[in-house]
Amino acid sequence: MVNDYTQLQVLRSITEDTSQPKIAKKVGYSVGKVNFIIKALAEKGLLKVENFANSNNKLKYKYLLTDEGIKEKISLTKKFIQRKKDEYEELQRELEVDNLKYGDY
């Protein structure tokens, strides 16, 4: 099972001229983990994986987000931003409580 944040990192890293090693380096995961995530995204219909037809290297692939993949990327980004806002607000509340307890230093 791949969590939302992990999926978002990979979805954000996908460009037309990328490779799994490039994605792995960018997001800080092993190539094997990236391969697993890409396969899971493709199975969900969020990503199309195609060989480069005119390439001498038939192991080279291109990754394309599907319409559903784009929607999922947007949805995951919104969730991520909301979670970070919630964390920020919780930290603000904690600081306010600490300031009431201990005053400013």
List the total number of helices.
4
Number-wise, the strands total 2
CATH architecture classification: Orthogonal Bundle
The helix content, as a percent range, equals 55-70%
- The CATH class is Mainly Alpha
Shape descriptor reads elongated
Could you spell the SSE succession in H and E letters?
Answer: HHHEEH
- Provide the CATH topology: Arc Repressor Mutant, subunit A
Portion in strands? 5-15%
Q: In the CATH hierarchy, what is the superfamily?
A: Winged helix-like DNA-binding domain superfamily/Winged helix DNA-binding domain
Main sheet attributes: strand count, strand direction, barrel closure: 2 strands, antiparallel
Oligomer designation: single chain
Could you tell me the mean pLDDT?
Answer: 87
Kindly give the count of domains.
1
Rg calculated over all Cα atoms: 19 Å
SS-derived structural category: mainly alpha
Low-confidence stretches at least 5 residues in length (pLDDT < 50)?
none
Report, as a whole number of angstroms, the end-to-end distance: 46 Å
In spatial order, strands of the major sheet run 1-2
In short:
This protein is mainly α. Helix content is 64%, strand content 10%. The protein has a single domain (4-102), classed as Winged helix-like DNA-binding domain superfamily/Winged helix DNA-binding domain (Arc Repressor Mutant, subunit A), CATH 1.10.10.
